[in-house]
Amino acid sequence: MAARVEAASMGGVEIDEEESDERGSMWDLDQKLDQSMDEEAGRLRNMYREKKFSAILLLQLSFQSLGVVYGDLGTSPLYVFYNTFPHGIKDPEDIIGALSLIIYSLTLIPLLKYVFVVCKANDNGQGGTFALYSLLCRHAKVKTIQNQHRTDEELTTYSRTTFHEHSFAAKTKRWLEKHTSRKTALLVLVLVGTCMVIGDGILTPAISVLSAAGGLRVNLPHISNGVVVFVAVVILVSLFSVQHYGTDRVGWLFAPIVFLWFLSIASIGIYNIWKHDTSVLKAFSPVYIYRYFKRGGRDRWTSLGGIMLSITGIEALFADLSHFPVSAVQIAFTVIVFPCLLLAYSGQAAYIRRHPDHVADAFYRSIPGSVYWPMFIIATAAAIVASQATISATFSLVKQALAHGCFPRVKVVHTSRKFLGQIYVPDINWILMILCIAVTAGFKNQSQIGNAYGTAVVIVMLVTTLLMTLIMILVWRCHWVLVLIFTILSLVVECTYFSAMLFKIDQGGWVPLVIAAAFLLIMSVWHYGTLKRYEFEMHSKVSMAWIVGLGPSLGLVRVPGVGLVYTELASGVPHIFSHFITNLPAIHSVVVFVCVKNLPVYTVPEEERFLVKRIGPKNFHMFRCVARYGYRDLHKKDDNFEKRLFESLFLYVRLESMMEGGCSDSDEYSICGSQQQLKDTLGNGNENENLVTFNTFDSIESITPVKRVSHTVTASSQMSGGVDELEFINRCRDAGVVHIMGNTVVRARREARFYKKIAIDYVYAFLRKICREHSAIYNVPQESLLNVGQIFYV
């Protein structure tokens, strides 16, 4: 007879005890209890090790983020005080007031707003204005090009939240979706912010490198300003010339350089506070901000433009967020960046209080003579790293704009095998270099470049605030009171800075406005032309009744081979196909309509990239393949697009042949599924249910889940038709594959207004002429390419 004893205190260990041998059973019980305790202790040790490892990894990522994220913000001490007091210091108390403004500007905007609020609004780790726009596009139908289908929402990366129909978020969503003008206004707002960040990509290298090179004149007074400008230009040309190598090989140097920079400026700051004036620490009291403005004068108000430069780099901070987790960025700022910057500015203020006539070169003159040249080298290296971070952020934003149809097709090169986000855009790189050299050589001083830089940054901040307001309502579903508090506080601070920058428009502040206006014109015209082309395709697509009426031969000679017809339509038959078969007497035996579309997600997993469905009856041998990409995905040269397309097509045909009561001969239904669904269905294993969807020509309807086939006889009978069609498609593929692409020319109507004629007939036509062809992007061999031209008027 057995009795069961439960050791509940140690995780429910169950022990069988024989009543006839109580002593032995108690010994067994003790052994099992000891064993259970050892297992529990081992589990706790493993948990501790995992937590310790996670903490070490987080600290390591925080250290690495210094070089990528905070280089721009960290080099601001090079030029802030000079731009704050360009005409000298009239009252020593103004130094305390300016330092107090710097302290609370760093606290309110980079620390509280960006690091702890805006960075949390990332799109699966992606930052920047277009990342915020993608989040909004997933939660509301605000895209101007409506090419999404509800199957796109089933992607694993297509994350979004839902809200109650009568909530404030739902009302805001309906308000945005109601009029096209509101969608257009939102897109223009995003484009303005993007253009200003591109302007930062020009101005950051100019002011950082020029300020660092300016240290030569402090220890070598006989050197002229022209020599300093020449040195800065040489450094800039070298920096832009090595961009095509990427940062993968030298990126490991960035974090140590910036970390050494922060330690150096903090140490020098402590030294200057101790040696010159410890009373500057009273600037931590906001009372001195009030006294600063109370003394009045326009110069004190316009000095906000210089103080604004202390928070430059926050736009690059958010745009470069994709390389690191948010927690790592937050730790790096709060533990290293923020305290080191406060000590650096306080030390400079203490030195200027003793030597007010040295404000023009406050940073370099405050360095002790024994460490001057090592500090000069570190400052120059830090300025190069800061420039690199902004250039990389510009490349990322251009890639995102390209994916949203808001930028002409340019070449994008993947520079790293390890990190997907490290890219190089040759055309943009050389444009940035030319404009950066022009700004550096044209202005020749930090003051005017600083005014231009501040104008660009404050506009980006305003755009981010407005987008964050919508994010808090639609994505985070915050209470409207919290949204109102965040928006009002942000706008009050940023509009104050913006009002000060208005006084400096004629002193260099016009530069980013001109640069942004030029890029905004290019992006707006390109998007307008892309939108009109898509609308033309939608309105002129061929009806399926006409296709079916032609019969299996389509009224033509079906020659051996496969024709891949590229179109922007994800549903329906494009007008280019009717144009093609009307002018040519033959078409290929197998026709696949290929639609490559970009979705408002950061990436589409490889196994979910392709969607395949049949068009028309089975004996027509016509299919549609939709290839979906996120705004971070790249068309790399080593990607065999054609091979992966055919793999998806073959998997689809196999799945269709295995469907119970399949609809292969139906002219109304076809099957749509991701590559992963197809592999799951075709795999060997137990009888599981896989949700498959039936597609009409332009719609998708869910049906009852279909059981996986496990009986050999049944599978063989169902696969026979599929095998025959697979052999037919393979023979056609061996006969040759032709890529048929439309070369649609857009023209303005005769009665169109003159500005539309200029925009379409000249600007858009020029951009189309110089941009990359689709065949180059998809690596289509020229010998198998066929362009079909057509013209439409807008």
From TrEMBL:
Q: Which InterPro entries match?
A: K+_transporter, K_trans_C, K_trans_N
Sorted alphabetically, which Pfam families does this protein's record hold?
K_trans, K_trans_C
Keywords attached to this Swiss-Prot or TrEMBL record, sorted alphabetically, are: Ion transport, Membrane, Potassium, Potassium transport, Transmembrane, Transmembrane helix, Transport
Q: Where is this region: Disordered?
A: 1-24
Principal subcellular localization: membrane
Q: How does it sit in the membrane?
A: Multi-pass membrane protein
Report domain K+ potassium transporter C-terminal positions: 560-791
Q: Is Transmembrane helix included in the keywords of this UniProt record?
A: yes
Q: Where in or outside the cell is it found?
A: Cell membrane; Membrane
- Membrane-spanning intervals of the chain: 53-75, 95-116, 184-203, 223-240, 252-274, 331-352, 372-398, 419-441, 453-474, 481-503, 509-531
Domain K+ potassium transporter integral membrane as annotated: residue spans: 62-547
The UniProt similarity line reads:
Belongs to the HAK/KUP transporter (TC 2.A.72.3) family.
Q: What is the recorded function of this protein according to its Swiss-Prot or TrEMBL entry?
A: Potassium transporter.
Q: What is this protein called?
A: Potassium transporter
Q: Record the organism.
A: Camelina sativa (False flax)
Q: Which gene underlies this protein?
A: LOC104781906
